[in-house]
Design brief:
Elements (H helix, E strand, L loop, with lengths): L12 H4 L1 H9 L7 E5 L8 E7 L2 E7 L5 E5 L13 E3 L3 E2 L6 E2 L5 E3 L18 E7 L2 E5 L7 H4 L3 H8 L6 E11 L3 H8 L5 H4 L1 H6 L7 E4 L5 E7 L20 E7 L3 E6 L3 E11 L2 E11 L5 H29 L21 H15 L1
Antiparallel strand pairs: 1-10, 2-3, 2-5, 3-4, 4-9, 6-7, 7-8, 9-10, 11-17, 12-13, 13-14, 14-15, 15-16, 16-17
């Protein structure tokens, strides 16, 4: 009987070659759903915040019709940036020549434009970007022809609502910013397997989850990796949980949405998130979000944020930065992935799926 050779890890160039990173900026990262912020950041008409995706400056703003829109952060006159940071405005005014736009992006006025023969104000509008509200989390896609998030991530919206029934009331309690000296894909891969957890994350593995029940599976369709596991016994947990709160209170579940975002539901229905931003072929930043009802102080979420930063996050920084250094070694030869047909915590089938998506995105 012929047995297929084991799948091997990706070659180092996928993580170190500047041309691969440039390919991603203009391709993958410009054609996928990217997290921008939370609706609670812009609760009022005229509220806005700016951010960057794939090297492009953008801003989200709430219109008078309560619709949240996203625009490229550039004036259609002579390319000055429109806004910086966050704030509130009645109209969007370019700081360079005072061209003024409605909250819908439509040009409203500009000094002396009426004296220009043939000038049609109605033809000029800020360039809008596809925007979706996903349980209060705002995502954008620079591809004007992109399909909806529900087609990219089928069933996830409904699953999250079941595991975090209070999600409509949540707002950010804390953002933990984590700079990492590694390629963003190294960090995403580390997040997407727990083969390393028992050895490297003792607090997480003994005080939150049961590693022997941990599994990560790609959904049958779309671009999602679903993490599932049971929690430790209540007396072993590092924080209190009410197992009777709802049917999923004793479970941990995570939905990684390719390529750069993950929703996590900790036991006790505590929501937290990851989102990544690439800054170059060898650097990225990971933001860890923690949420509470209304964004008000929550002892459990705050304790988890501190615990996570001091344990799992610090442990992962050491791991991913060592991997990045290793990828630059002339001695590195990509080894076989450990893919157990039965799945489970000691299998890397999730990494095989990530590598498939990476090859498709980079090599076509």
């Amino acid at each position: 009987m012929n047995i297929a050779a084991p799948l091997r890890s990706l070659e180092a160039r996928y993580y170190t070659d500047p041309s691969v990173y440039q390919n991603e900026r203009t391709g993958l990262l410009s054609r996928t759903w990217q997290f921008s912020g939370h609706v609670s950041q812009i609760p009022n008409v005229g509220d806005y915040f700016s951010f960057e995706v794939a090297g492009q400056s953008l801003f989200c703003i709430r219109g008078r019709d309560e619709v949240i829109r996203t625009f490229y952060n550039v004036c259609q006159h002579r390319a000055h940036e429109m806004v910086t940071g966050s704030g509130n405005t009645r109209v969007v005014v370019c700081p360079y020549h005072a061209w003024t736009y409605e909250l819908t992006g439509q040009l409203r006025a500009g000094p002396n434009i009426k004296s220009v023969p043939g000038f049609n104000r109605e033809e000029i509008c800020l360039t809008e970007v596809l925007t979706e509200d996903f349980h209060g989390f705002i995502f954008v896609n620079l591809d004007p022809d992109a399909t909806s998030m529900d087609k990219w991530y089928p069933g996830v919206r409904e699953e999250i609502a079941a595991y975090v029934p209070q999600i409509a009331t949540l707002a950010p309690l804390e953002w933990v910013e984590v700079p990492e000296n590694c390629n963003w894909k190294v960090s995403v891969e580390n997040y997407s397997e727990c083969y390393h957890c028992p050895m490297n994350h003792p607090t997480f593995a003994t005080g939150v989850i049961k590693p022997e029940t941990y599994d990560i599976q790609p959904l049958k369709s779309g671009y999602v990796l679903r993490h599932t596991t049971e929690c430790q016994s209540p007396e072993a947990m590092t924080y209190p949980i009410d197992l009777d709160a709802n049917e999923h209170a004793g479970e941990y579940r995570s939905w990684f949405l390719w390529p750069m975002f993950s929703f996590q539901c900790y036991p006790g229905n505590v929501l937290n998130t990851y989102h990544w931003r690439a800054h170059g072929p060898k650097t990225c930043t990971v933001w860890r979000g923690w949420y509470s009802e209304g964004g008000v102080e929550d002892e459990v979420a705050r304790k988890l944020a501190v615990q996570d930063r001091e344990t799992t996050v610090e442990e992962d920084i050491t791991l991913v930065e060592s991997v990045q250094r290793g990828l630059n070694s002339h001695g590195y030869v990509p080894g076989p992935l450990v893919i157990d047909p039965e799945g489970g915590v000691n299998s890397e089938h999730s990494i095989a799926k990530l590598h498939q998506w990476m090859r498709e995105a980079i090599d076509g």
